[in-house]
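Bench notes, afternoon.
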Amino acid sequence: MKALIATSLFDKVSIENSGVRLVVHVTEAPVLDRVAFEGNKRVKDADLAAAIESKPRGTLQRAAVQADVGRIIEAYRHVGRDEVRVAPELIARGNGRVDLVYVITEGARTTVRQIDFSGNQVFGKRQLNAVIKTSATNMLSFLTGGDVYDPDRIAQDQELLRLYYRSKGYADASVPSARAEYDPAAKGFTLTFTIDEGPVYHFGDISVVCNIPGLDAGKLRGLPITRSSAVFDGNALDKTTEILAIEMAKLGYPFAQAIPRVTRDATARRIDVAFVIDQGARTYVERIEIHGNTRTRDYVIRREFDIAEGDAYNKTLIDRAERRLKNLNYFKTVKISNRPGSAPDRIVLDVEAIDQSTGDFNIAGGYSTTDGALVEVKVGDRNFYGTGKTVQAAFTYGQYARGVNLAASEPYFLGTKVAAGIELFDRQTDATSYQSYGSTTYGATLQLGTPINEQLGVQWRYSIYNQNITLAPNSSGLTPSLPIQQAAAAGPAWVSAVGSTATYSTLNNTKSPTDGIKSQLSQDLAGLGGDVRFLRTTEDVRYYKSLNSDLVGMVRAQGGYVTGWGGQQVPLMNNFFGGPTMVRGFAPNGFGPRDLTPGTTLDNVGGSMYWATTAELQSSIPGVPDEYGLKATAFVDAGSVFRYTGSTASLQVANKNVVRSSVGAGVTWASPFGALTVDYAVPLSKAAYDVVQPLRFSAGGF
């Protein structure tokens, strides 16, 4: 009878004795003609169908139907709908066939109304809120979705908090619980993370111990990025383990494992680390099985692995692949587990990657002191049709500027670890109170990005674009400056340039860094075809340091130089122009070499050299919830643009290296449409002919 029931072909089975005979009574289970869902708006049919066991053309199993009800409820809990109700209904179709319909009442969204932390002494609530993915309900939650109560996300937040403390020297830190209590009055959850911080540790002795004959340990001892006496950093341990594993595989030891053995000295608050190199078990990857990815293609997931089917199994490289997949931000959850293969030395990797939405559609309106009133529409997808490609289109229409930008990129061009991209652009600007001329620029850029290591990468590019200066009627009766007239008379010019940007970054967070350094060195050489020839070099370095739980210090230095070659001067539009991106408190084109010839519009004619420095303090705003994404800044800027290289005949050009400086404060809102900033700066030193602008509205980072 159990065997008959297990076939799932029968609705009822009974067996009885009738004399010397055994009589089996069976009632065949109806066949499911259709499995449908009604009332579901927040979860798609395809996602629900993937979650349940009942399938069309299968048999109706009442126990499976009840289990499917629980699975549907669980799927809704993951999108913050704890009040969902599910009622299965059967519709007879005759001939032993039925339709199964799950009628769903979704109910109101269940949200997190408040987030608290218990036991945290070193880091404040604001700093810890920035670490986790869950956020309390605010006026922007309908855009971000971070306030949805999701048990899986909360479990991830516990691990994120532990790793954050571990990276800051608290090796014993743990987050033993995350308690969620439903408040009927607030119609939401109060979430409390309990944190056990423990003491802060520093690195002690760092060593590499090799137990594999023939492996030269001398080639490994210089690889660890951990340093004695530095604050303990768990991330540095993980990265060193990865570096050692990769290097040993290159040396012909694919099964070798580097295991960090730590020895704590609780009295001295010191941790000695010995990276012990041992030969691991000779185990091979039989298969890599991927599931859960309803949208992302399998090859997008497989290319994040440094190993393939048939290669030696290496847990360090598996962990690295899992981190890479999570960092893609394509998936809601990523989990890699092992199970035995067809032989004792074979392992099957089970990769569960649950897709999440990666598309963006934003419409923003606002005001910029550079472009005036403006409207911007952006549409894009960072995982286009599940291929891992990024596509984006942006359209801007402003009072003084209009433009369109189309971009696409492929992170693994032709199957290699080289990122490739293309950008098409068209931008027009009109004359403003800051400049007497307009401009038109349109063209394209091709890009190739080459990673050198985890912290250093180089981007190579080729750009071809047409630039032109246009003169508008001047109601003041003043004559445009002679360099402007000459540039306009020269007409459109094609610029064909090759360039590169080397980026070194140790930032702990690319969007809102609190620690680390970022340096960018860029060079562009124009003259490979086209109408103009020049060499342009710029450098931008930023250093961030967390001063306490709510205060971050930032120091920035930048500079640049441009020169013509082949007997040509640098075109006016390719010079450097001083403005608020260098020293806040000054208008766009507000400082730098300027034509002071009487009777002209006194235009900024640009310089061939510039430098600028910034010292800035960044802090959250007291009384304002972190979920609003508001940050206050106080800053001091200084810089200069100088060395005009054009003709000075019949001109009075102010061309000195005058130091401009300012002090001020600002507020930045990390909105869903991008960073929006309001600055107010007071110039401390300037030239008499400079144009100041204390108040500034801008979109994008400073």
